[in-house]
Structure prediction request, 487 residues.
Amino acid sequence: MDDLLKIDATEAARRVRERETSAEALTALVLEQAEKTEPRVGAYLRLDLEGAIAQAKAIDNAIGDGKQPGPLAGVPVAIKDNIHVEGQVTTCASKILGDFQAPYDATVVRRLREAGAIIVGKTNLDEFAMGSSCENSALQQTHNPWDIAHVPGGSSGGSAACVAAHSAFISLGSDTGGSIRLPASFCGVVGYKPSYGRVSRYGLVAFASSLDQVGPFARSVRDVALSLKVMGGRDPMDSTTPDREVPDYPSRLADNLKGKRVGVVRAYLDEMPNREVADAVSRAIDALKDLGAEIVDVELPHAEYGIAVYYVVASAEASSNLARFDAVRYGMRKPADSLIDMYMQTRGEGFGPEVKRRIMLGTYALSAGHYDEFYGRAGKVRTLIARDFEKAFEKCDLIAGPCAPFTAFKSGEKSDPLSMYLCDVFTIPASLAGLCALSLPVGFDGAGLPIGMHLQAPAYADGELLSAAHALEQQLKASVDRLPAIA
Ligand code: GLN
Prediction:
């Protein structure tokens, strides 16, 4: 692999700006890399070869004309296929959207472009972002670049896999209950779920609106910080984005953790069946201590109800959000004799089994006789989970632990829905509470599969979280500095 592909996006953009390389050369290299790795990885649903080169030429011309090309000048970026890129197909990895073309750029895509990024393609996901392995995609299978017999994690599996395979420098995913953090952990890249509202969702196809966030995958924490700075902030098109300053995250990254308190839920490590994951995460906690942090014990007594709460709340919101796919407005339409038959046939054929399961679960939870029993109750327990975090954050600045209970499992290994749902046991509580959270590679298991650490901080403490993650990343560099064989 060309050495130019091994640097991170921050450095790549610097080289493009200072004309040590060109956006076109960088983009061509990434596309070549994709050509090499895609037959085995399958991260992309579509690559925009001509469009990417044209965008790169435009950046090079702007630089040639002495214009300011932006902090992501010439950086090839991949976009999860539930986020709109104008004029391109958005499938959500579902058959129901057919060849629906996005009429506009999502705000995040527009902001990336304005910063000089090159949009190279759209990546695979679990259908409508529902899943933990990418196996629920109705279109394609994606494989883990570290071992192609294993899943990349989900739902943003394609976005994690392309960054790991070096066929993109940065990618975007969406995280509703763990869909950025879990695949980042399985693929050995950094994955970030910003605080709820930090990043606009305008142009993200809605799954569960009280939980959804767009966030980046990258190969370094400073690339995540840069992406967040570019994408974050108020967007009049998304009322959940507050008019709150977006700090200059990249310039505030620390190299130590002096004066910081890091909370650890001991039981998560002590009771973890997978000792390799527990040991790698414990070593990373020791590294946090070496950086000057004080480690304190915290408890999250209601977090164990997270999965139950999430599958009521997320399914209820999904059942409502997905009602718009009615064969009238978007994509696929099955001809039928009556309107009701058209709905039934289109939705019956267009949605895959997991999506149907969620719609049924959610519709039931919202139905007149059951609303209080399920949706109402789930909302109350959600508040208890958020209060647990508030209490824990009185004692610490961030919470560290495992991102997933295991490393990437084999394709086809988890066939029942419940075992798939359990993958997100550690990531869901932060989503329910609207926190910011990140997965950082901290080591490998005996089979050479990556292990991720989960770092969580209070809502809008994104800067603090990234700073701590950066310090830890620098400390651990030697132990995680490997490339997947496929790259
Ligand atoms: N795996 C979880 C689910 O299937 C989370 C997905 C997500 O964050 N989009 O719903």
